[in-house]
Structures are given as C-alpha cells and as structure tokens.
TrEMBL record:
Name of this chain's protein: Glycine zipper 2TM domain-containing protein
Pfam families found in the cross-reference section: Rick_17kDa_Anti
GO CC field: outer membrane
Record bears the keyword Membrane: yes
Keyword Membrane: yes
UniProtKB keywords: Membrane, Signal
Localization, UniProt: Membrane
Amino acid sequence: MNLQAKLIAALLSVGALPLAQAQGADFEDFGRVVSVRPQVEQVNRPRQECRTEYVQVQQPAPQRSVGGAIVGGLVGGLAGNQIGGGSGRSVATAAGAIAGALVGDRVDNANTPNSGPVSDQAVKQCRTVDHWESRTSGYEVTYDYRGRNYTSLMSYDPGERVRLRVVVEPAQR
C-alpha cells in the first residue's frame, strides 16, 4: 500500500473514533462480591391428611318366615272347627285360626333375632392441612467495582466474584 493510501486510512480511522465513542462502548470485567443474602419466601402447599375410624353399624334384621303362621292358622282353624258346635262353630274356627297362626309364627321364628348383627365399618375421614415451605427466590448480591459498592438482585449465587458488563458513555451536560 502506498503512503497516500495509508494516510487516508489513518485519517478515516481517527475521524470515526468520535462516532464510536458517541455510541458507547461496552466490555466485560469482574467485581469482588462483598455479600450475598438469599431472598427467602414462604410458600403454602396444602396437603390432605386422612385417617380411618371404625364405627359400629347395626345390620338389618333377617326377614321373618310366614310359613309357620300359615300352617298354624290352618291347624288352629281345623281344631276350632272340631271343637265348636252350631252357631259357635264359626267363632271357634276363627279363634282357632288366629291362635294357631300366632303359635305357628312363634315356633317358626323362635331363633330369628329381632335385629341384625352389629359390625364395625371403616370410615375414612380427610382434612386439608397447611404445609408451609421456605423457598429461595433469588439473591441480593453486593459487590465492589473500582472502589464503589453496588447491589443487585440475581437468580443465582455468583460466588467470590461477579461477571459485569461495563458500558462507557459520555456524560450529558
């Protein structure tokens, strides 16, 4: 390259320098971490607690049989019919049928309980209980850069030093 071309290139470079400075320059550097303070928040995560209780339940009574009452009523009616005479025969037949039905029912259902058995039944009971947890949401980091302290909220703990992006711009009057 000849001398004239070199001079033109140098002049253009020097002339472009104020434009580059006016737009600002940035670079990376490191600052010394002075303190790190975790930012902790309380978070509620409700959960269910369940337990099983046993309660006594009365089962329904077994069905009573009607066969004994029918047979007893027939036998009682026949017996009453044999005992009675004349106009009292129908009254004796009716009374014998009623008495026979009652006796037949008692004999047939003598071992049938009036109520069903009692059994234990499991009942599950649940309730919602608050469950608080501590969660770190970020870090308040104080660092020193060229003799001045700065504080910033960060999503991580940077350790002993923090990487910085430094922007240089001319001051406004």
